Amino acid sequence: MHIRLICPVPRASRHGNMTSALRWSRILKALGHRVVIEETYKGANCDLLLALHAWRSADSIELFSQLHPELPIVLALTGTDIYQDIHEKPEAQRSLELATRMMMLQPLGMEQLPTHVRDKARTIFQSARQTPGGHQPSGKTFNVSVIGHLRPVKDPMRTALAARLLPESSQLQVLHVGGAMNAELEQTAMDETANNPRYRWLGEMPRWKARRVMAKSQAMVLTSLAEGGANVVSEALADSIPVIASRIAGSVGMLGEDYPGYYEVENEHDLARVLTRIENEPAFLQELKQWCTDLSTLVSPATEQSLWNDLIQEVIQAKALSLTTA
After folding, report:
1. Are the CB atoms for 209 and 232 separated by under 8 Å?
2. In whole angstroms, what is the distance from residue 290 CA to residue 115 CA?
3. How many alpha carbons fall within 13 Å on the CB side of residue 222?
């Protein structure tokens, strides 16, 4: 099939949406399809539209539906879609109606959809390959990594605040990889690096370098206020790296309700409690590592490719059925 993949960010972006789009393109090409990535749909011919973002791709979805009502649309829902836009913006709600099928990155997102469209939604966990050598913590300090751009939704300075609360005897160091989305956050990270001996902002890096930082740390911390299903969690699971995460639906949907490595959202005191445990209780750190190892099959590339193949075949059949019964 000829697939137009709409990703509403520039091709050169290191934004998480483009990372996902490029991986999906590779998967679909491996399945034998032709894939073209565009920021917006402009009317070109194809057999299927795969659109990332219910609201930001709403115009593309609307145009494709008008020009090609007989062709299928797959809508990939982001965390912003699921936990914000579909509840507030009519254009995003319209995208849900026009989609032949929807996919999301973790199953708890289903609960946010209107009941009458839930049967169109499928879950496909983002896959990740192991880094060369896998998880190899190194250094004299106890390093925890924070991998993510400095954006308000990521609550980016929470780990730094928690590190300030640790006892003087702690050897914990926070290594933060990610670009600042505005000058104010950049200055905050620079000031924190200068004044907090337990925190280092490393700035933006290519993905492979960021993964090496994570692989050499004892654990990875995800402090987000909302996530559709964070790619960095998939990468941690692929390498069996212990994850510390804010208790949000996007992470619970990936790690499980009973995962022991959560802390309460926006609570640096609770995060400091968990960080103290992983540094001082080897059995607890090993428990988290084993849990993440057990989940690693969820993020295998073979699993994601198989699920994408199933979805594409299903969407073709579903569209054909809808036309015959119309």
Report:
1. no
2. 36
3. 29
Q: Which residues pair with 6 in a beta bridge?
A: 38, 51
Encoding tokens for residue 273?
Answer: 């409690």
Residue 195, classed as helix, strand or coil, is helix
Token pair 């009317």: residue: 43
Q: Are 121 and 97 in contact (CB under 8 A)?
A: no
Q: What is the signed CA dihedral for 232, 238, 241, 245, rounded to 10 degrees? A: 40
The span from the CA of 105 to the CA of 101, in Å, is 14
Q: What is the pTM of this model?
A: 0.89
Residue type, 318: A
Burial of 179 (0-12, 13-18, 19+ CB in 10 A): middle
The number of residues making up the chain comes to 326
Give the pLDDT confidence score for residue 141 in this predicted structure.
87
Given a contact cutoff of 8 angstroms between Cβ atoms, the answer to whether 7 and 15 are in contact is no
Count helices and strands in the chain by DSSP H and E runs = 13, 12
Domains of the chain: residue spans and CATH: 2-127+300-325 (3.40.50.2000), 142-299 (3.40.50.2000)
Sign of CA dihedral 138, 139, 145, 150: negative
Q: Would you say 69 and 24 are in contact if contact means Cβ atoms under 8 Å apart?
A: no
Interval 135-153: pLDDT, tens = 999 778 899 999 999 999 9
Place of tokens 């999301």: 104
Tell me how far the alpha carbon of residue 287 is from its chain's centroid. Answer: 23
Rounded CA-CA distance 15/78 in Å is: 12
